[in-house]
Fold Chlorophyll synthase.
Amino acid sequence: MASLVNMVSVSPRILSPTTTRAPSVQSRPVLSPFSDSFTRRRLTVRAAETDANEVKSQAPDKAPAKNGSAFNQLLGIKGASQETNKWKIRLQLTKPVTWPPLVWGVVCGAAASGNFEWNFEDVAKSIMCMMMSGPFLTGYTQTLNDWYDREIDAINEPYRPIPSGAISENEVITQIWALLLGGLTFAGILDIWAGHDFPIVFTLLWVDPCCHTYILHLL
């Protein structure tokens, strides 16, 4: 009987109802991954549209013909007016605005030599040297530069003479060769006129086309 009582007398902890806590589940919206990806996609599309609009604003389709300057066109700088005269276009390709440093260099070199005198011969030599270094050789390099930049200019500045078709490719190539050969001819004349035993000026001028050929080979 005592054993039965002992079996019945169970600890109250065992008989007490056990309280179980339900695990806390964090509720997350079912559509949140989809909405996040959709929002990011919209932001990406808007950013791409903004970049495209900025690129379009930086690269105008055509030059402002009304605001173009005829003087800028002759100097070969930005803001030039559209021109149909082929000789003005040829002059624009040579960029006369880049000639003065070369011409001034001839003047400074002649003055620094100590051998310059104000007579017809020395003045004629100086003028020929200015023509060689400015219009001919600088014009040659500027025209050649525009020729090799024609594909880039077709995107960034389609109104320039070569990409716009204001001057044909054959005319540009003819101008490049004419300016180069003209500069070399002037160099040879100056060598003979100065009495050089070795054609120093003519030889030095060959460095220019050789450098251009090497650079274009690297590109």
In short: Residues 70-218 form one domain.
